[in-house]
Amino acid sequence: MSHAAKHVRATGPSEPVDVPEHLDAADAETWRGAAAILAANWTGTHTVPSRTLYPHQWSWDAGFISIGLAHVAPDRAWRDLRSLFAAQWPDGRVPHIVFDPGVTERDYFPGPSFWSGGPPGPDGGPGHGGGAAGNGVEPARPTSGIVQPPVHALGAWQVYRHAPDERAVAELRWLYPRLVAQQEYLATARDVGGAGVAAIVHPWESGLDNSPAWDEALAAVPVAVEVLRRYARRDNQVVSSDHRPTDDDYARYLSVALSYREGGYQDAALAARHPFLVECPGFNALRGAAELALVRIAELVGADPALHRDRGAAITRRLVERLFVPETGMFHALDVRTGRHSPARCVNGLLPLVLPELPAGQVASLVAELESARFGVDPRMPVPSYDRSAVDFDPFRYWRGPVWFNINWLLRAGLRTHRRDDLADTLRRGLLDLARRSGYYEYFHPDSGAGIGSPAFSWTAALTLDLLADPVG
Ligand code: 2M8
């Protein structure tokens, strides 16, 4: 929606909310429902992804949430981004979780004491996190030690676009050096393979936790059952264990995180000692997209946009050279330890579509994949997280089949960038249809559209607002 779009004031379930005039009564209701979820998930300092499953602040969630808040509460969007970046580490990394000291260890695992290796605080309260950075004003909050895809420059730029006032410029000035430091950390410390493509050190860093993209690399990590006995999972007590990663995968996640923790979360010599090092096409495509958002932000705050233009173009080139597999016509994750591409066709392999300078051949190839029966852009159902024809496609299990809003929102943006407004519009209609009939769930069954996971999920609500606000394409 352009910031010039007209709004009419209406009263939603929890707070007054402006509804764009172009929405009919049903869409106005959807708008109010989505705004109400974001209001309910606001803690006073940041938005949680879900009150039940994820009661802290998550990094890439904050980016997507800001895109929705831009339409209903830009003030909260800026506060969310500030809250996250106030916890940025001195080396530039933005932690994937910033823990809320008011939430007990019992309410989320792995919590602050897991990441720090210290004991839980009194009464199960938070211990010290793996890292804790403050802004010098508020007390430092504990954090995890890993990262997530850098979608924040994109988010911040969207907030500015929809609410371009003086406050927004001041916020961009504050954020700009921090966003640059985030990118530089990924470009240097994480260039483990030495080819200009950042490696993730944990599946959680991709945001697509149990995607089949990690299966081969993870298979080399032994399943240490004693690790699972030592720590109790909480996620599968809140939602069905059939909808979450398996215990074997979870044991491996913990071992990989413990290995990184034992190395003090340092990145030097990772190749020699760390069991999981993978180049993810989605993560790196979003790194590239972040540089392009930084071009715009730099222009606005008086910094050098050319630097970011060059970096964005270099990331695009490296990604194509390193992760595009001509035999399948899409991008695949690369295991830095073995030099092998994952054979799985996963939706993160389509995300390079967000890069405007992706060569025409790769664009055509990704669009063909999106239109194939494997991913099948269809007005009735957005794109699943994994190849529908794969024998291990699982319509319930998290990132191994279900439909996710954030990924489809990014694919829609990519399709528009490459002038496929027809397909972009199909995705938009499919997503809105899901939100209308199933609600603002965390993820959705790729055939029935039934909601799965958390029922009041922030990024689903946020991106619904953005799709409703923007009827074009
Ligand atoms: C999921 O990941 C967390 C670990 O970070 C978990 O399963 O506990 C993922 O879907 C991730 O992409 C998301 O950021 C997070 C919070 O919504 O949940």
Give a concise summary.
This protein is an alpha+beta fold and 473 residues long.
Radius of gyration, in angstroms, nearest whole number: 21 Å
Query: Biggest sheet, open or closed, and with what strands and sense?
Result: 4 strands, antiparallel
Beta fraction of the residues? 5-15%
Number of helices: 18
Give the tally of β-strands: 14
Molecules bound to protein = (2R)-3-hydroxy-2-(alpha-D-mannopyranosyloxy)propanoic acid
How are the strands of the biggest sheet laid out side by side? Answer: 7-8-11-12
Low-confidence stretches: 1-5, 122-130
- End-to-end separation in angstroms reads 12 Å
Proportion of helical residues? 40-55%
Helix/strand-derived class? alpha+beta
Q: How much is the average pLDDT?
A: 92
* Tertiary shape: globular
What would your notes on this structure say?
- The protein has 473 residues and is α+β, with helices and mostly antiparallel strands.
- It has 18 helices and 14 strands.
- It has a four-stranded antiparallel beta sheet with strand order 7-8-11-12.
- Strand 5 (131-133) and strand 6 form a beta hairpin.
- Helix 2 (59-72) crosses helix 18.
- The termini are close together.
- The protein binds (2R)-3-hydroxy-2-(alpha-D-mannopyranosyloxy)propanoic acid.
- The site of (2R)-3-hydroxy-2-(alpha-D-mannopyranosyloxy)propanoic acid (2M8) has 10 residues, from helix 2.
- (2R)-3-hydroxy-2-(alpha-D-mannopyranosyloxy)propanoic acid binds at residues 49, 54, 58, 60-61, 96, 204, 207, 209, 235.
